[in-house]
Amino acid sequence: MATTFKTFLSEDVTSTRTLLHENIPITGSMVSDLFYQDNNIKNFSHERFQSVYDYPYLSSSANHIFDISFGISAESEVSGTTTGHIDIEKKSQMYNTMAQMLAGYDTTGSILRFDVDGDLSPASSDKHNDCVFLTFSRLLVKDEIKKGSVNLVLGSGSYGASIFDDLVTIADYGAATEYRINSPAGEYGILYSGSAATEGTGVGLVFYQAGVIVLTASLFGGDSNDFHNTTGRTDYLIGSSIQEISDVVRKRVQNINFNNTVELNSTIYFCRINHNEFNYSSNPTYLSESKIRVKEEKIDEPISYITTVGLYSSNNELLAVAKLSEPLKKTPQNSLILRTRLDF
Question: Is 195 found in the same domain as 315?
Answer without folding.
Answer: no
